Write the structure tokens for this entry.
Amino acid sequence: MSAQVAAPHSVLFDAPGPKMRRTIGFVNLGGGLVILAIIAWAGWRLDQVGQLSAYRWSVVIERDTWVYYLLPGLLHTLEAAAIAVVGAILFGLVFGVGRLSQNALVRLVTGAVVEFFRAVPVLLMMIFLWYFLPGIYSGLGWVHPPDPSFVAVVIALILYNGSVCADLIRTGVHNLPSGQGEAAAAIGLTPRQALSSVLVPQALLAMLPALIAQLVVALKDSALGQIIAYSELLNEAVLRGGIIRVLPSLVVAAAMFIIINYTLGKLGEYVGSRMRSRTSQLDPETAEDLPMNVTAKAAATIIESVDQDGYSQAEWRDEPWQDWRGDPLRSHLRLGPEKTDAN
Amino acid sequence: MGFLGGYGQVLAESSVLGAFWVNITLTFWSAIISLVLGTVAAAMRISPFTSLRAVSTLFVNIFRDIPLTVVMVMMSLVVSMALGVQFSNDLNMDAYVLAVIGLGLYHSAFVAEALRSGVNTVPLGQAEAARAIGLTFSQSASLVVLPQAFRGAIAPLGNTLIALIKNTTVATAVGVAAQTSGLMKGMIEIHANYVFAIFMTFALGYVIIVIPVGLATTALSRRLAVKR
């Protein structure tokens, strides 16, 4: 049976022979028994403290649970995450392009902003905004201001995820082959035109799998809203569970989060493998120069450089003052770090 | 008394450094738990035993896709209250242990993935060459594959450490009040007119901690990188 399931990779182990297959069978049997024993023990313990009673678990199938709590909560979670990701892309575009700017001051300021929001915990930003926004509202004289917890969640998510996106765009542009910037310069585009119509669009397409991964991060972080009383899924599940039925209620909410994030994660992997497969048919040596593979190559590099928590590994690699060296366009045009007008 | 003098007073009566120290010790203990659990999970994941791989995959997928806040709220409302698990008679200590366990469980999934991705950076040819020169399984694992795998795992492990440092603020969901997010909330509630200054104090504290850790782990991973 185990021979059917291929090992995830075979760096450490050979394909099992007859003796090893017998060992694997024994270990699987033993492992299965241990797992069953743990499940049985956990069930027995839960039953001992009365957590498996029908009244407690009926919360899962009650109509009110879904209509008044979980589904509205899920809607609020999705709403916050969706707005945050759209905002993060816009924030990332502005600050990512800013970090590629020819103006040293712009690079310095955008770089400092991005590094700041990547280093500050999202929860601190949310708590700060939650207390800070009502003052702003009354200052503006708004009669019907939006819910400060919702706005705090969305802005904090935009600032953090947008900073990650800014780095993704910068890494994406850096990872494009230098021929792209060179060709743009050769047909007479200014550096700004080259960025906006040649380099950034390709980097954006290459970012697609990483953006889906970022959506998962935003969805997970939106649950921090529970701490500042935003009516998202976790908060609603806690409210519905009360004291007696908190276990089943939270288990359902957790399962909803896991299913959504797992599906999105798989979608990101699929998109990523689709983009990488655009190069895999070709000889890597010659493929480097083919324009159709540019995005796929950049995508592969970005995917490698982003871990599940959205932390780009490329993050700390480029010292900001050396940015221009990595920029294919700038190095091609022999532009130094100081501002130079190509025209 | 001017704004600065007034804020100096606020700082003097609150133990900001003490709060950061609580986050650092939270980071330390949960890092140990997540390193141990993550290593076990990664070893199971790369083992040839189907059942162990399945258990490890399930564990990693659950804790990677569940929000940390859900884990922490469950530690508090389910593990502590509903199930009555108690680690200490001291309420603060109890919350601290619950937070460390929650943080450790959550981040162990990321440690496991980091270690597995480290093993995946080792090309198959390395293992084949090791066998070709007659090394046994344990020799090829300990002399050829794992040393390279560990070097490849440093960068993702560093990212996990940074995420952990920042995520210790979520300990507030279990009731660890003495750490940064709890103290910041308390300070803002008392001194509402200094809300921006209070936030910037804590934010800069994290910048000062996180950026050197990021630079250090990147420098380490570069220095130890296997040139291929």
User: Anything to note?
Assistant: The two ends of chain A are 68 Å apart (CA to CA). Residues 1-9, 279-292, 307-326, 330-343 of chain A have pLDDT under 50 and may be disordered.
